[in-house]
Amino acid sequence: MEQNSYANLPLKAISEIPTPGADAREIVALVKEEGRVWGYKLSDGQVLNKAQGVALAKQGGIRGVGISERKGSEYLKSIPDGTEANNLGNLPSIPKAN
Fold it and tell me: Taking Cα atoms as reference points, which of 31, 42, 27 lies closest to residue 93?
């Protein structure tokens, strides 16, 4: 866990911050189905559902995110860094492929 470098930031609702590996990718778009976030598109073009994204992040495969939980379901959340542009909510959305 990479807690020390984020010690002075407000980490409300983030329960875990995995340490990204050297080859970690970034999330470039949210994948939505019927207006709700279904998953994440990564910088290498791979599309993952929420559970796969959380699992990969926990393994250090995604940078810039922490793990949050709501109603018993884990999801990824941007680590606050003072920059709005890289927040997940500000990324483009793409529809889930059928």
Answer: 31
